[in-house]
């Protein structure tokens, strides 16, 4: 197959290929195109942020399966995530726009299905993104609370335990900082993005070597690679079931790499560099994440104690691991608290990049008239930043976190949309690519050739599988407190999206609207 040329020459001056392709797709350049391939990669890598996902959800992996589900679950989830990333990268190369997934769905579903396909993909994508930002910044608020607890003597030494109102206040303050940073010009944001990627890389390398070196009691290699923890206290004894639940940590962490697609209108030669950003961020995260998991798990010797709410960190396993490693060797846990600070900065950068990605999606979706008050959200300021979309995204994420004040169960349901909702949005365009657009899809500079269909089907089937697995009960007997509300939240979003389409949007939403002549 002859590939379309995505390189443009204007006299002797080379025109940016991403800019040219954007014009071909019917959009004018409104955002400042200033990001390099490295900067584009940095945004996705910072959102995946292995320090964030693994640290905050290590308890889940430890409880369900222990080191086996942590070490091998990561590799399984990583391999299938790479399939999803490759499929998305191929589509991104052909359609490098800030709309990303919902624009791809519209183009790949064909003219008859385009409006509905882009509507449902777009809403799953943006709500999933808001949920991701909510959970990232909430996990930072909880991390700060644990740092304060350990710094004031720990749970067993009369340390300060923040109320849920203080945690929500911290969450609001963090979101405010993220909105302020994302209001700065893209050149400044690009610097922060690269700093975030560097911090994540160096932080992982330091912690995966430092913690097992400092700890006085190390786990054996046999424990790290073969110990299967069935003592979860949740009434689940089936090993396969336990392993699947432990997989959640890995799959939650390996998400958010659609940021590379949402930043394409600000990336140089985006039809080549956008796909590179997606694939490299996943690949490097898998390698460094596995190293981090091995390093931390080498310091695990007593799983029930680490998960106990009676330990100094109040049951926050990795915090207790860091704290004990230094306390047992040096008589003080200050070094462990500093290590938690390194993770906290990584989580902060993760949230910053997430708000950047959210705002670009909101900007593009409202540019096509899909959101209430669309004209307001797609305005850009003099620095070519979608400023209103930035603050709107931060505000929505704060509102989603307020559910925590009413019910932790409701909050968990809200956050569950982050993984499943987002992955369903990833799967829609890939599904249309391998079905309706199987013969009509015109690839860009990056493509999978004859393997595109096979890789696409593997991706779609994996998303379908995890959507079912992560909807399974996580504790027995099932009560209102132990029920897994993920399917309720996802089905609720589906019902809202489809009913709003049937009742209203089908009459006025026509899918992506070109603006090059406006």
Automatic annotation (TrEMBL):
MF terms in GO: gamma-aminobutyric acid transmembrane transporter activity; L-alanine transmembrane transporter activity; L-glutamate transmembrane transporter activity; L-lysine transmembrane transporter activity
Location within or outside the cell: Membrane
Keyword Transmembrane in annotation: yes
Listed Pfam families: AA_permease_2 (PF13520)
Transmembrane feature ranges: 38-58, 70-89, 101-124, 130-150, 162-181, 187-211, 278-300, 330-351, 385-405, 411-436, 448-472, 484-503
Bilayer topology: Multi-pass membrane protein
Family of the protein in this entry: Belongs to the amino acid-polyamine-organocation (APC) superfamily. Amino acid/choline transporter (ACT) (TC 2.A.3.4) family.
Protein's UniProt name: Amino-acid permease BAT1 homolog
Species, as recorded: Acer negundo (Box elder)
């Amino acid at each position: 197959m002859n590939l379309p040329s995505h390189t443009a020459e204007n006299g002797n001056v080379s025109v940016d290929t991403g800019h040219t392709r954007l014009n071909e797709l019917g959009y004018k350049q409104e955002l400042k195109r200033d990001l390099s391939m490295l900067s584009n990669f940095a945004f996705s890598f910072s959102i995946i942020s292995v320090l964030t996902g693994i640290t905050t959800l290590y308890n889940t992996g430890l409880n369900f399966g222990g080191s086996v589900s942590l070490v091998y679950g990561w590799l399984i989830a990583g391999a299938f995530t790479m399939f999803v990333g490759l499929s998305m990268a191929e589509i991104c190369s052909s359609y490098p726009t800030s709309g990303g997934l919902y624009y791809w769905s519209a183009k790949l579903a064909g003219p008859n299905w385009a409006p509905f396909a882009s509507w449902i993909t777009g809403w799953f994508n943006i709500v999933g993104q808001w949920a991701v930002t909510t959970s990232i910044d909430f996990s930072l608020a909880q991390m700060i609370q644990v740092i304060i607890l350990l710094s004031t003597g720990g749970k067993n030494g009369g340390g300060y335990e923040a109320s849920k109102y203080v945690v929500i206040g911290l969450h609001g303050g963090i979101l405010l900082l993220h909105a302020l940073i994302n209001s700065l010009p893209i050149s400044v944001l690009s610097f922060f993005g690269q700093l975030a990627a560097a911090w994540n890389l160096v932080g992982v390398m330091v912690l995966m070597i430092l913690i097992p070196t400092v700890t006085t009691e190390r786990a054996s290699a046999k424990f790290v690679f073969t110990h299967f923890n069935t003592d979860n206290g949740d009434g689940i004894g089936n090993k396969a079931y336990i392993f699947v639940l432990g997989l959640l940590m890995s799959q939650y962490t390996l998400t958010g790499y659609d940021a590379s697609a949402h930043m394409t209108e600000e990336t140089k030669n985006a039809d080549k560099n956008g796909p590179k950003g997606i694939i490299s961020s996943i690949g490097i995260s898998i390698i460094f994440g596995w190293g981090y998991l091995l390093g931390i798990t080498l310091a695990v010797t007593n799983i029930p104690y680490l998960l106990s709410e009676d330990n100094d960190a109040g049951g926050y396993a990795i915090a207790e691991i860091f704290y004990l490693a230094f306390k047992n060797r040096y008589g003080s846990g200050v070094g462990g608290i500093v290590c938690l600070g390194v993770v906290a900065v990584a989580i902060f950068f993760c949230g910053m990049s997430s708000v950047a990605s959210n705002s670009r999606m909101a900007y593009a979706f409202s540019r096509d008239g899909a959101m209430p008050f669309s004209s307001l959200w797609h305005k850009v300021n003099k620095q070519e930043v979608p400023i209103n979309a930035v603050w709107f995204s931060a505000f929505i994420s704060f509102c989603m976190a307020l559910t925590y004040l009413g019910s932790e169960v409701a909050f968990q349901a809200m956050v569950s949309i982050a993984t499943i909702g987002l992955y369903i949005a990833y799967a829609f365009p890939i599904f249309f690519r391998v079905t309706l657009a199987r013969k009509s899809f015109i690839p860009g500079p990056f493509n999978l050739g004859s393997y595109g269909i096979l890789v696409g089907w593997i991706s779609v089937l994996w998303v379908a599988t995890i959507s079912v697995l992560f909807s399974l009960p996580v504790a027995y007997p099932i009560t209102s407190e132990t029920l897994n509300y993920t399917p309720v939240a996802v089905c609720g979003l589906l019902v809202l999206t489809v009913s709003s389409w049937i009742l209203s949007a089908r009459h006025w939403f026509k899918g992506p609207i070109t603006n090059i002549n406006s």
